[in-house]
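Why predict the complex rather than its parts? Because the way molecules touch one another can change local conformation, and only a joint prediction can capture that. The input here totals 510 residues.
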Amino acid sequence: MTEIRVRFAPSPTGPLHIGGVRTALYNYLFAKKHQGTFILRIEDTDQTRYVPGAEEYIQQSLKWLGLNPDEGFGVGGPFGPYKQSERRDIYLEYAEKLVAGGHAYYAFDTPDELESWRKDMEAQGVHSPKYDQSTRRNLKNSLTLPEAEVRQMVADGKPYVVRLKVPEGETVVFEDIIRGNVQFETAELDDKVMLKADGLPTYHLANIIDDHLMKITHVIRGEEWLSSTAHHVLLYRAFDWEDEIPQFAHLPLILKPSGKGKLSKRDGAQFGFPVFPLEWYAEEENESYLGFREFGFLPDAALNFLALLGWSPGDDQEIMPLDELAKLFSLEKIVKSGARFDIEKAKWFNQQYILSKKSEKLLPYFLEVIPEKEISETRALEIIELLKPRITLLPDFLKESRFIFERPEVYEQKMLEKKWNAVNREAMIKVNGQIRNAATFGDDVFESEIKGFIDENKFGLGNILPLLRVCMSGSSQGPDVFRMMAILGKEELIQRLDAAFKAFDDIIKA
RNA sequence: GGCCCGUUCGUCUAGGGGUUAGGACGCCAGAUUUUCAUUCUGGUAGCAGGGGUUCAAUUCCCCUACGGGCUGCCA
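Output of the joint prediction:
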């Protein structure tokens, strides 16, 4: 069996969209599954849409996610360059071959002329006029113009494009791994532009040439390309590369949460969730975005979530880190229909990954999030251990650990009104004394001593423990009371208790 | 409009001619007798509709509806 070679081929027109990330992921998984090669190629043939920084963004995103290319842009390899704008001579040569072989022709219609032609056609009732076998006879191209005139125009440097001459009366059939047999009548296919007036190729030409030259075996890309695949097949035929044609797999789209339309960057802004892997900064207003990383997702969790948006291993397994996904992945198990983006499920994955990660692994994320910069590693690890079950997104560490670094300034009024009565007040004073005089602190012995004391005196754990927590953090919610005490330390605890009692008296009296 | 692709709980999905249609998220309830979180248990909810084929269709075929994609000198 020949070596599997797949490519991820984004265009640098802005930050890499999450749908693109999933395409990259599926390509990566397929390559790893078959010990193949995962290639990164930059498709920057539209210079008008080029956005500076986008290439770096793509590389950084893949790096953050751990989807490192084996070959390609930024990595190198035997089939470079891997950036299409640096390959223009190649495309030019092949475009000429197409024309020479009768598979393509020169077209001299200017964009303005085409626009007014389309308007005319529409006025005549044609819904969306196409430059195709039914209309090319009426337009300005090397099929309609005398040969000498064409030669002269080219020699004069008149701008022209090269268009594919779609054959008449054929049916193009191809096998898609995900969708099975798909077919198109050539009568439906337009004469797509292969080479633009600026001398650069369109996606259609560039992608066929590069895939062939780079020996790509499987083209795994979004469903939006399904409609133009017939053109691509025609191109392989025209170049006489048909027996080396790659296999196609067209991925379902990721849809908006509403299910109407594909997920866009606007949806992220509107619903408050990330649709990009990393943050993206732009000068224009409303064009900067936070990414999965900034929201506090772990790369493995984001990947796991994305992997299952359109694919499943066939059983009930859900938590699968990258290497596990690579073992189980198969194109055949990709779902045909589009999947809606569900941020709640994404969060659940993140929570699961945080929960199962060793605290040591979480340490760098924790340190990044908390305000306190001078903290010992042991102490940090203790805190992480305590807080871990309470974290969904990494920044939750900030909120959850606040009580450790700051003394409470406000106390939850409602619960004090309920619990800070004369009886409980007396009990708390006694418990406070017991804490001070206890033989140990912060360990199991301490815990059972204090609990025992509360029980013996019939104070009621349900009264005392919540009050103790409010003393420490101001809130009635939080981790286990005894773990909180241990984290604070005896001295700090006692100070907080004293301060709290005074504050409680003020609050309740007033 | 035309062409192409799709349609199993609210969402992500498993399944496949005869199943109590399975799991996960979410939601609800209960347990862990200190809260919240975690964990555990239980519950809620689905084969778009209509025709065929068949002893039997959610599963195969057709039609309809609905959804999506494409329809650029963009990718």
